[in-house]
């Protein structure tokens, strides 16, 4: 799941951007959109993409706030939105992936949004390290078939019967993995690249493993079926 934050002290502008983004989100992609009046409200919040108006209430400057909030969170994709084109140079003091001028045009919004999604996808494809019992292990998302949560331990089930364990909530694991991983159960994430079939109660993986489904929502799982493997 990707978490999107829209930050604008103008409720009408915020709602308009929200509606346009809703139309742009692919049907198979699980995205949550939250609206805020200031960047300070994002402190400590999990977020993947931020659409930030530069000039906010009480003299708040989003450029300065972004530098403070996300300097140690390089995965957060920042897209500035402003009615003041004079800031087009100042924003380069911060890491960002887009600069949109109000009134925002749908195509320009779509281009910036898809750049952010592609960047996030690339980042989440990268191997990452986890620790378990004083040992570090590398998780390679492309090799993970599904993830199972047992008590407080996340178990990554990989190809060729390999497993990697770490102490991590399943919700936090989901934030580290590409969008093709879907949470189909309170204790399971499944990688659609390894799904052969979907029944009423479970996913059947390429190695014959059955991963349970506890809250199947057909509209979410219909689109990725084109990518489901069929080994005849």
Automatic annotation (TrEMBL):
Coiled coil: none
Name the record gives this protein: LytTR family two component transcriptional regulator
Stored InterPro entries: CheY-like_superfamily, LytR-like, LytTR_DNA-bd_dom, Sig_transdc_resp-reg_receiver
Residue ranges of domain Response regulatory in the record: 3-117
Annotated ranges, domain HTH LytTR-type: 128-191
Gene Ontology molecular function terms on file: DNA binding; phosphorelay response regulator activity
Alphabetic keyword roster: Phosphoprotein
PANTHER family, per database record: STAGE 0 SPORULATION PROTEIN A HOMOLOG, TRANSCRIPTIONAL REGULATOR-RELATED
PROSITE patterns, per database record: HTH_LYTTR, RESPONSE_REGULATORY
Post-translational modification 4-aspartylphosphate, affected residues: 53
Species for this entry: Bifidobacterium choerinum
